[in-house]
Amino acid sequence: MISELPRYLFNFIFFTIIQLLVLNNIQLNGFVNPYLYVIFILTLPFDIPGWLLLVLGFTLGMVIDVFSDTPGMHASATVLMCFLRPYVLRIIAPRDDYQLGTLPTMNYYGASWFLRYAIILVFAHHLFLFFVEVFSVTHFFSTFLRVITSTFFTIILILIAQLFSKGKKQGR
Amino acid sequence: MRNFIRFIIKHHFAILFFIIEMVSLLLVVNYNAYQRSSFLSSSNALTGGIFKRFNAGTEYLMLREINDDLARENAYLRSRMPESFRASRDYFNLVYDSLSQQEYIYRSARVINNSTNRRFNYLTLNKGRAHGIEPEMGVISNKGGVGIVKNVSENYSTVISIINTRLKISAKLKDSGFFGSLEWDGDAYEYVYLHDIPRHANVNIGDLVVTSGYSSIFPEGIVLGNVEHVDLEKGASFYNIKVKLSVDFKKLAFVEVIGHSIREEQITLEKATEHD
Q1: Range of weakest confidence among A103-117, B73-87, B93-107, B158-172
Q2: Is the predicted pLDDT of residue A170 greater than 50, yes or no?
Q3: What ipTM is given for this predicted complex?
Q4: For range B97-123, the mean pLDDT
Q5: Nearest Cβ partner for A66 among B23, B47, B120
Q6: Do residue B164 and residue B190 come from a single domain?
Q7: Tens digits of per-residue pLDDT, A160-169?
Q8: Nearest-5° angle of CA B60, CA B78, CA B99?
Q9: Which of A120, B42, B191, B224 is most buried (most C-beta within 10 Å)?
Q10: Residues 6+ apart with CB under 8 A from B217
Q11: How close is the nearest chain A Cα to the Cα of B32, in Å?
């Protein structure tokens, strides 16, 4: 776990920079804002203690917030996502449970498992984020459409990022 | 007591989540008070410095367009020089002394951070209090109005842009003089809406929309955009006017900040009248 520390530190900084300097400038009709930084939370180890998960989520969200002038929005959405993560992992566990020394990534558990895992959490994150941002239900459908399209693009970016990640390939 | 501690230990995950989530939501709700302190906003030195460095890179890619704009503005200013007017001795003219009567002061600044994809869009400028910029000053580019300065630190300032659903600007139709408030609906960044134009006004597509000058933030007559679409619902007493902004917020690079030298006087006077 300790030996993985530099890698996660790198992930944290790398995805934060990509998010702030590249992805925050992407826009298609105001409907698509991919938030790739959540991949950091997705790929944390299975046995991470709950309190650390929440604190990391808050820190990551706060860093994004500070740089995009949206105090609390990303932090609250990311913390919610961290809270849901253990439950989602339990619900979609494979039949023979998670193996020791593996990570919740595509390389270990295959594309279909990872896709289910990522879609549930990213959707929860985006839903919360966009509704907190609007802070009303008057634009419900346009906001909901933004959630769906942005989730779609975030998932695509996460899948692309996963293709470049290291780890044992398993034929499942 | 022991049971209570056991309860906390058992549910520490949910309790910790609840506490952190409350803190985050508190930050969201207190957004405005929070902004005022400007401690964590991008006008503080660290984030401002990083954006400045990044901007140095992207600015290079826009040089061609910036050059075009500057050349055009140079040509315009040259045409306003005394030399480009024909001297005439046939009539006398009233001369305003421009030194003692200057009402608005312009300071140029560079946009070092900008967003168009959120509902609350802000810009960051590379000048701050040290350069004479203060909150509530108007910001324009050579194409038209941009926004209003919100927070100022020593060397940076943040600007609440027209495409921010929290900003309303007093605007009028240049031809007919009817005024209303200009507001963004949070959708496409090229369009805003002009409200409160009464139904007896004559509005045509293509009409120029300019600042009214009532708010003392902008001088009168700064171009904001053109009427793109006019719509009058049955029984409504006000028009629904869609305005295409003259400024392309995706291409902002250089702006000018407008200082109003006798604004204090106007505001004090208006306040005194309000209390009567």
Answers
A1: B93-107
A2: no
A3: 0.80
A4: 78
A5: B47
A6: yes
A7: 988 887 655 5
A8: 105
A9: B224
A10: B136, B137, B138, B148, B258, B260
A11: 10
The Cα-based distances of A80 to A7, A106, A136, B7 in angstroms read 24, 23, 19, 22
Residue of A nearest to B39 (CA): A66
Indicate the CATH number of A2-92+100-163 among 3.40.50, 3.90.1720, 2.50.20, 1.10.1760. Answer: 1.10.1760
| Token pair belonging to B245 | 């902004």
Residue B112 domain boundaries: 41-80+100-259
Residues of A in contact with B20 (CB under 8 A): 54-55, 58, 79
Judged by CB atoms closer than 8 Å, whether chains meet at B41 and A133 is answered as no
Number of domains making up chain B: 2
Model pLDDT, residue B234: 80
Where helices occur in chain B by DSSP H, the ranges are: 2-10, 12-29, 31-37, 45-61, 63-79, 263-275
User: Does residue B145 fall inside a structural domain?
Assistant: yes
In this prediction, residues B86-93 reach a mean pLDDT of 59
Residue B57 confidence (pLDDT) above 50: yes
- Answer yes or no: is B87 within a domain: no
Residues B123 and B213 in one domain: yes
Q: Parse chain A into domains and list their residue ranges.
A: 2-92+100-163
Among all residues of chain B, which has the CA nearest to that of A32? Answer: B117
Residues of chain A positioned with their CB less than 8 A from the CB of B119: 133-134
Same domain? B70 vs B179:
yes
What's the N-to-C CA distance of chain B in angstroms? 62
What is the 8-class DSSP label of residue B198?
A: B
Q: What is the mean pLDDT of chain A?
A: 85
> Residue A60: is its pLDDT beyond 90?
yes
